[in-house]
Amino acid sequence: MASRGTQCFLTIASRHYSSKADKNVAFLGLGNMGGFMAANIAKKGFNVRGYDPSKEALAAAAKNGVTSATSIAEAVDGADVVVSILPSNKVVLDAYLGDDGVVKHSAKGTLLIDSSTVDPNVPKQIFGVAQEAGKNFTDAPVSGGVMGAQNATLAFMAGGRKEDFERSLPILQCMGIKHFHCGEIGSGQVAKLTNNMLMGITGMATAECMNMGIKMGLNPKVLLDVLNNSSARSWSTEVYCPVPGLVPTAPSSRNYDNGFKNELMVKDLELASNMALGIRSPIPLGAVATQLYRVVQSRGFGQKDFSYVFKLLNEEVKNN
Ligand code: NAD
């Protein structure tokens, strides 16, 4: 087992925080998001020990100052704080509550921060068990995508006890620039899923309406200028235009690659739909958006950015 370096602790303590501050961080899930996030924490001088079942992910993180662990138990041994960003409800529940999981193997008083996007009931479930075991759990999902993770410009939306949020800030600030405390445990997930359902709906609506205007013969650039200076303006028209070639930095202008994958949009819309179902909140537009992004996925474009839905609608037009 790798030992945690005491020399480094002193550097951090003097550079950033009081001697009582958290210095040792365990990071679980070193994928597209987590790899960059863990690296950014290490860059600020914290001792970061990472775990991921993927050897490639571990090796890549090691190049960025993240010490490798071979299990969750090893990663959390001696950690003051645990950060995780994992793919699904089941993986998160297993990682925290399983026999080999975080709650069982972390020390009392450890701060546990999960940044995965999951059903709001998942953090609620973990919070109760963690609290019984003397550990503090908070949900802190993120917005900003892989670019935001790489550039440490993520937005965090946290749920849980205010004091845990405040304690988490020195770590979250290594990875992001906006940090919101949304309320009780699970409310970070509620905010995240609400944002992503709205983003999915406006993205789909932008694709559909721009396709119509272009089909009617409007110059795409003129149409976008009109929208961006009229009442239909949104993040989708200004930043994330689904029509290729109009916004150079949008995924549509790089063949819909390296964006927010359509399959992740489907995942988030399904989580949001389940949440709405649980409280019988009507989501007519959210339901249609979910179905349409599912069609994109079933046609084999799940890896493309979610704005690929424009291409699908555009092809439909050509086929008529
Ligand atoms: P990813 O698939 O690239 O990474 C997930 C990593 O978790 C993988 O490397 C996998 O091997 C690892 N993993 C699986 N089981 C594990 C375990 N038990 N312990 C430790 N590691 C384990 O996914 P990602 O794109 O990094 O997304 C991760 C989470 O962040 C998801 O919940 C996603 O919805 C959310 N998210 C993603 C984005 C994005 O743009 N990619 C944006 C915001 C939020």
From TrEMBL:
This is 3-hydroxyisobutyrate dehydrogenase. InterPro entries: 3-OH-isobutyrate_DH-rel_CS, 6-PGluconate_DH-like_C_sf, 6PGD_dom2, 6PGDH_NADP-bd, HIBADH, HIBADH-like_NADP-bd, HIBADH-related, NAD(P)-bd_dom_sf. Belongs to the HIBADH-related family. 3-hydroxyisobutyrate dehydrogenase subfamily. One of its GO terms (molecular function) is 3-hydroxyisobutyrate dehydrogenase activity. The active site is at K192. The keyword NAD applies. The keyword Transcription regulation does not apply. Residues 24-183 form the 6-phosphogluconate dehydrogenase NADP-binding domain. NCBIfam families: HIBADH. One of its GO terms (biological process) is L-valine catabolic process. It comes from the Eukaryota. Keywords: Branched-chain amino acid catabolism, NAD, Oxidoreductase. Pfam families: NAD_binding_11, NAD_binding_2. It catalyses: 3-hydroxy-2-methylpropanoate + NAD(+) = 2-methyl-3-oxopropanoate + NADH + H(+). GO terms for cellular component: mitochondrion. Its EC number is 1.1.1.31. Residues 186-313 form the 3-hydroxyisobutyrate dehydrogenase-like NAD-binding domain.
